[in-house]
Each structure stands twice: as structure tokens, then as C-alpha cells.
Amino acid sequence: MENAPVTSDAPYAHIDHQDRAATGMSPAVVLLFALAGGIAVGNLYWAQPLLTVIAGDLGVREGAAGLLVTVTQIGYALGVLLVVPLGDVLDRRRLIPAMMFGSAATLVASAVAPSFALLSASLVAVGLTTVTGQLLVPFAGDIVRAEHRGRVVGTIVSGLLTGILLSRTISGLVAELFGWRAIFWLAAAMTFAVAVVLRRALPADLPRQSIPYRSLLASVFFAVGRHRAVQATLALGASAFCVFTMFWTGLTFLLSAPPFGYPLGQIGLVGLVGLAGALAARRVGALHDRGWSVRTTGAALVLALASLALALAGARSIVAILAAVLLLDIAIQAVNVLNQTRLLAVDPAARSRLNTAFVAGNFMGGAIGSALAGALWAAGGWLALMEGAGAIILVALVVFVCSRRVLDVR
């Protein structure tokens, strides 16, 4: 087969989309997708609260221990770019459990790693194999009825967000009781158990067309380039995630400084307010199903701007800050779910590749946000941070207004 870009209908050339969509997804399968995605993505964050303990145990500086988070994220980025596109050509009923089994093995390797270097290598492998959540979302987009796609995607994304938020809290508690290695043993056991269930319970996948791997990766860029709705959606997603990362990075600086002076444990508890964002993600997907995706996206961007204004005006009040956290999480997760649901409707044959582009775009936006947070805090503190974040949201609103017509995809 020639190494040419893959057209949108190639992998489904012999399939009646309406007949396949009519099977839908049972509530139990939706719950399984959400649980599996949450456990998978949670594996990226077990080490974050434990860096000081790991540094002391393995005899490295705390600053060096911070590299464990970096290498895990690098592994995840590689997995998104190199593994997730395979969801468009391989049988996901086999691919997804295989990735979960691989993730369980890398978590065991992390639990027994005798040195910092080997732990770092193991965590790169953890990141590379823990992309199950990004395979499950487009899989659900294929098998669920179109009129319920937003609600189902919202539920699965809610599971992913809950996994991210709870992993840090659970990690600290388990490590305090049993040591830092115990959390990796626990994570390995949970991941292995879910892999076994997925192997038995995943619904049948659509038939897939064989595509050369190089062509498959190249077609990620082709799929983005041929759809204006995708380009606008990726810009909105990267902007929203950039602001989200800026805010949360800067919040640590704010709450650890006067007048708050909170210890890290108390700052971590503020993150639990983000569970509201996970709940909002579950609910907002249904608005896409009702045809309100575009107007809700615009409203969410306005809400994000208002939450930044509240955070700036109430910079000395913990009540105002918590309210801003709540509103910003709801706004950003609403944008996130609506963006992802929209992409699943643009090109059914390239859902995994478009999801790769979406996650990669968000990842780059988050990286830029982290860099900007430090620079803006050093330049002008919380005021500069909130003004910078507000400017990015305003740019996103301009993109939204100019792209409203092409964003109306169902």
C-alpha cells in the first residue's frame, strides 16, 4: 500500500455507520470506560506528592527528584504521538488491554527500582503505556449513538479528571502508611485487574484497514490540515489548557506566600475543589447532544475570564480564591469536553488521530503555561499572572467568534 495520506473514509470502507452506531453503549460499559481511563491517567501522578521522600530514600537532591515528573510526562507525550494513532488501524479490543498489562508491568518495575536512574527509566515506560484513556475516548465515539456521544464522552472525561485529582491524595496517604513503593504496587494491582476486566468486557471493535505506520503518523497532520473546525478547536483547547496550567502553577506561589503562608498539604487540599470540574465535565457533554456546543463553549470562555477577574480582585481572600478555582475548573473542563466531543464528530475514520492532535495541543499549551507562570510571577506576581491569563482567554474568544460557524459540528 502506498505511503499516502489516509482519507477520512478509508478504515471504514465496508461498514454501515448507522447500523454500527445503533448498538450504543450500556451504562455498565460507559462506567467501565470511565473507571479504566481514570486509573490509567492516575498512573501519571502517583510520584508527584512523593518527590521529597523518594529523593531521601534514593540519595538524590530534591531538585533532581523533580525530574521524575518530567520524564513521566515525556513518556506520556511519546505514547500519545506514537501509540494513540494505532487506535484507527488496530483492534482496540486487543490494543487497550495490552497497553494496560504493559502499564502494570512498568509500575511493578517502578516499585522495585533500586536506583534513581532505573526509577526514571521505569516512569518513562509508565508514561508511554498509560495512554489507555486517550484510546477509550475515540473508541466510545465510534460505538455510541451520535445523539448520546456528548454525554458519554463527558462521563469518560469525568473519570479521567477524577483519576488525576484523587491520585495525588491517595498517593500521599498510602505512602505515609506503607512507604512510597507501596503506591506503585497498589497501582500495578489496580491496573492489572482493570486490564483483565477490559479483555473480557470490551465491546467488539469496528473492522480496521491496514495502514503503514509512517503513513498513519503523517496522516495526523493531514487530518488536522483538512478541517477548519479541527484547527479552531485545537487553538481553543491549547489556549484553555495554557491558562489552566498558568493558574494552578501560580496558585501554589500565591498560597505559599503572605498573607496565606499555607504548607504544601493545605495547598494540595485546595485541588479537591477541582472535583467540581470533573462533575461539570460529566454534565456538559449532554449540552453538545442538544445542539448547544458552540454557545456553551463561548459561555465557558466568558466564565473563565470572569473567574480570573475574581481571582485577581480577591487575591487576599481565600473564599474568593476558592470560588475562582471552582468557576475556572468548571469553565475549562466544559471547553475541554466540548472540544473533544466536537473532534469525534468531525471525521469518524480519524478519531484516534484527531484525539492525538488534541492531547498534543493541550500538552504544548500546558508546557507554555508552566513557563509563562514562572516568568510572569517573577515579573509582577499574581497581578501579572492573571492579566497574562486573561489576555490568552481574550485571544481564545476572538478565535471563537471568528470560527463559530465552522465549530458547529455534530
Please explain how this structure is put together.
The chain has 18 helices and no strands. It has helices at 17-21, 27-42, 51-58, 62-65, 67-82, 92-112, 116-129, 132-143, 149-178, 180-201, 213-225, 228-256, 264-270, 275-289, 293-313, 318-346, 351-402, 404-407. The chain has 410 residues and is mainly α. 78% of the residues lie in helices and 0% in strands.
Please outline what is shown here:
The chain is mainly α and 410 residues long.
Features:
410 residues, mainly alpha, Growth Hormone, Chain: A, 2 domains, 0% strand, disordered N terminus
Sheet with most strands: none
* Oligomer category: single chain
| Annotated CATH homologous superfamily of the largest domain | MFS general substrate transporter like domains
Number of domains: 2
Indicate the CATH topology of the largest domain.
Answer: Growth Hormone, Chain: A
Tell me which CATH architecture of the largest domain applies here.
Up-down Bundle
Overall 3D geometry?
globular
Strand content: under 5%
List the uncertain runs: 1-23
Listing every helix as H and every strand as E from the N terminus to the C terminus, the arrangement reads: HHHHHHHHHHHHHHHHHH
Q: What is the C-alpha radius of gyration, as a whole number of Å?
A: 21 Å
Q: What's the mean pLDDT score?
A: 84
In which range does the helix fraction lie? Answer: over 70%
SS class: mainly alpha
Report, as a whole number of angstroms, the end-to-end distance: 32 Å
CATH C-level name of the largest domain: Mainly Alpha
Number of helices: 18
